[in-house]
């Protein structure tokens, strides 16, 4: 079911995307609602599943991770579930998507330095083929897509 969002919901979501720590009162001042009204709308959006959680954006370099890599993974025959578990259990994988095409997974990996790459991927080598690209820079961080207009009932 497509969630119905009005212009106030859209404004609240945009504000939270920019700063999830903004108070409901501050968001309300920006969009012309009271703080409690914003809080009620946020509660409703959470109940509907539109908002699935709140998080923090980390500067990985400040935490000692100087590199990131994209790893395409193609499990060998019969190894799909084993490889999937291994990826899930390796904490250096920050994200992993199942994909169509030649590979089964595309994962993003945090690295202190390039020498770590072999150590982290070694356990996968008997079970899967991997192709790695070092990320040189990012054009932008993860962002939300534009909110779709309401559909007429």
Automatic annotation (TrEMBL):
<dbReference type="InterPro" id="IPR036388">
    <property type="entry name" value="WH-like_DNA-bd_sf"/>
</dbReference>
<keyword id="KW-0238">DNA-binding</keyword>
<dbReference type="InterPro" id="IPR036390">
    <property type="entry name" value="WH_DNA-bd_sf"/>
</dbReference>
<dbReference type="InterPro" id="IPR011008">
    <property type="entry name" value="Dimeric_a/b-barrel"/>
</dbReference>
<dbReference type="InterPro" id="IPR019887">
    <property type="entry name" value="Tscrpt_reg_AsnC/Lrp_C"/>
</dbReference>
<keyword id="KW-0805">Transcription regulation</keyword>
<protein>
    <submittedName>
        <fullName>Lrp/AsnC family transcriptional regulator</fullName>
    </submittedName>
</protein>
<dbReference type="InterPro" id="IPR000485">
    <property type="entry name" value="AsnC-type_HTH_dom"/>
</dbReference>
<keyword id="KW-0804">Transcription</keyword>
<dbReference type="Pfam" id="PF13404">
    <property type="entry name" value="HTH_AsnC-type"/>
</dbReference>
<dbReference type="InterPro" id="IPR019888">
    <property type="entry name" value="Tscrpt_reg_AsnC-like"/>
</dbReference>
<feature type="domain" description="HTH asnC-type">
    <location>
        <begin position="5"/>
        <end position="66"/>
    </location>
</feature>
<dbReference type="Pfam" id="PF01037">
    <property type="entry name" value="AsnC_trans_reg"/>
</dbReference>
<dbReference type="InterPro" id="IPR019885">
    <property type="entry name" value="Tscrpt_reg_HTH_AsnC-type_CS"/>
</dbReference>
């Amino acid at each position: 079911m497509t969630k119905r969002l009005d212009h106030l919901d859209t404004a609240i979501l945009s504000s939270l995307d920019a700063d999830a720590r903004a108070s409901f009162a501050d968001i309300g001042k920006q969009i012309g609602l009271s703080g409690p009204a914003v809080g009620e709308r946020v509660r409703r959006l959470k109940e509907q599943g539109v908002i699935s959680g709140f998080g923090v954006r980390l500067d990985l370099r400040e935490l000692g991770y100087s590199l990131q890599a994209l790893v395409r993974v193609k499990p060998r025959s019969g190894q799909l579930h084993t490889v999937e578990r291994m990826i899930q259990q390796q904490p250096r994988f920050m994200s992993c998507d199942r994909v169509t095409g030649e590979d089964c997974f595309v994962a993003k990996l945090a690295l202190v330095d390039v020498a770590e790459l072999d150590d982290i991927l070694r356990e996968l080598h008997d079970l899967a083929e991997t192709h790695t690209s070092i990320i040189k820079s990012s054009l932008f961080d993860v962002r939300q897509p534009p909110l779709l207009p309401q559909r007429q009932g």
